[in-house]
Predict the structure.
Amino acid sequence: MRATSAGAVLLALAGCSSDKAPDVAAGSEHIACALGQAAPFAPVCAVDRVEQGGRKALVVRHPDGGFRRFAVLTDGHGLAAADGAALAQVVLAGGLLEVRVDDDRYRFPFTVKAHAAD
């Protein structure tokens, strides 16, 4: 991920319409994801916000019933994989936070918030 000393990445997921295609995972918020090496991005992954042990996390649900859990980092670096041994690769690209874990990719909307003056 490109580092920015002037700001912190804040995830700002937008809600979606309740009219969903059958192959869209259930949930109130959706993001574009590409599941598998050659898959194109499509807005079919549902996102649930959760809090575990006082820490914020996102659970991304795949249309096939699979899911990934991401820890929301408070140091401005976005997200980290919270399950399994695979590390999340995070890149800021075109106004989106793109996260890759193994062959799966996810695009989260974000905003950059300036740090308060010391």
Observations:
- Residues 24 and 52 are 26 Å apart (CA to CA).
